[in-house]
Each structure stands twice: as C-alpha cells, then as structure tokens.
Amino acid sequence: MIYAGVVAAVAAVVALLARVFARRRKVVGEALIVSPPEHTRIDPSTGAVTSVQCADLVLPREAVEAIWSPMHLERLARTYWRFLSRVTLHTIQVKYREDGRDVKLFGLIPLLTFHAPEYEMDGERGIVRWRIEKGVLVAAAGRAGRGYLEIDVQRRPHDRPGYGIVHVEVEVANFYPAIAHGISRWVYENTQSRIHVLVTHGFLRSLARLDLVESKVGRFARIDDLPDPVPARERDDLGEPLVR
Predict the structure, then answer these.
(1) Closest of 73, 76, 40, 34 to residue 54, by C-alpha
(2) Are 174 and 65 in contact (CB under 8 A)?
C-alpha cells in the first residue's frame, strides 16, 4: 500500500508539472489528446513494449503552412527533449553528440542512449526517429538499435473553414525495459510506463502554443533534402520499406 501511494504521488507531481509547462505561452491552437485506449502494449512472448500517444493540433491554416518545413521538424524534435528536461526539473538532462543523444539522470547516469536522429518528410507527413542504442533503462535484448522513439506528424483537413489539423504521434516501439525484465512487468507498468504516458501527454498539449525551440543542428533547409517518410513499423530489420 505504501509503495502504491508513493507511485501515485510521483505520478501526480509529474502530471501537474506537465500541465504547468504546457501552459507557459499564449495558445495558438487547440491540442486534443486522441491516444488509443490500448496505447501501451507488452508482447507476452518477448516482453517488448510498444507505446503510442497521439494528439490532434487544431491550428489556423496559415500556422500549419508556416511550420511545415524541415527546420520546424528539427525544432519539434529539440522541443521534445527540452520539455522532458523541464518537466523533470532538470533532473533528467539531454547531452548532444554528433552521432547521437544521451538522456542522463543528474547529467551523470545514462538512462537512455540514442543514435543520431533520422528525418523524413514530404508535403503531408514528417517523421523524426531515434534508434535506441543502450542505457540502464534498456534490457540487453533492446539495445543496438532494435528499439526506437519516433515522432510522426501528419497534415489533415479540418471541417472548420480556415483551420487544419496536425496529427502528432509519439511512439516508443520494440523497447525492452530493464525494470520489466529484471524486476517485474507490474513494477514497470506502474512506474516508468505510467510516467512516460503522463509526460508525453503533457508534451503533446504544450504543442498548442507552437513554442518550438531552435535546433542545435539545423541541417535541413528544404523538404526535398529529406527522404520520403516511412514509419519504422513499416520497415524491415534492415531499414528498407516493406512491400505494401
């Protein structure tokens, strides 16, 4: 009972901070959380986790046009990491490398290490993907790029004149949590998994303000500079698109 109470208290604090940071700027549009009921699944045979949180951003059409560029896709990626750091009161910090990203507790303990981001974009869809390399939160089966974190944005029409929808999905897939493999799935589901969902929903709500921080890299200028988007779940193990 005491353990469950502590978990509930931590989750409540994270949810409160996520809402605070989501409200810091003037609202440009509206963010509607549309995550599926079964947003987090654990494969019973392998223990691999898939978690998808979604939102529809209802924005003025001119705002959608203004942000639909590789530059803003890079800024969206950077904004995700900034939000994670802020909502944890900087106990979690992101260290940038030329060939990847390190998510560290207190700037010291490598919770998650990612390969360099992969960007894909066309006129209707944009994807940024980080493949998981290693980290203390990752069991051995999920290292060396087997799992990934992906942000997928899609332009969609809206029936309100002068407005459009940017559908945003944040997906973690083929992730093997060390907690679930080393302790128990119940502990993972009621700690790390629950907090991840709360933080991601806070991030998605914060996008209604379009407060996108400038990228540290800024590699791409035109959509034509990027390959066409194909979600990771639609690729084979070698990274090639599956036949559809």
Answers:
(1) 34
(2) no
The pair of structure tokens assigned to 85 is 């750091």
State the Cα–Cα distance between residues 148 and 176, nearest whole angstrom: 10
Task: Determine how many CB atoms are found less than 10 A away from the CB of residue 82.
Answer: 17
Nearest Cα residue to 35 out of 25, 50, 23, 15: 50
Largest Cα–Cα separation, the chain: 56
Helices (H), the chain: 2-22, 61-67, 70-87, 178-182, 185-189, 192-206
Q: Which residues contact 4 (CB under 8 A, 6 or more apart)?
A: 190
Residue 241 per-residue DSSP state: B
Q: How far apart are CA 175 and CA 103, in angstroms?
A: 15
Q: How far is CA 113 from CA 42, 203, 205, in A?
A: 21, 20, 26
Beta strands 109-115 and 125-134 are antiparallel
pLDDT digit string (tens) for 50-67?
A: 999 999 999 999 999 999
Of residues 77, 69, 106, 10, the one with CA closest to residue 215 = 77
Positive or negative, the CA dihedral 101, 119, 17, 48 is: negative
CA distance 76 to 94: 15
Dist CA 177 CA 102 (whole Å): 17
Q: What pLDDT digit, counting tens, does each position of 163-216 carry? A: 999 999 999 999 999 888 778 888 888 889 899 999 999 999 999 999 998 876
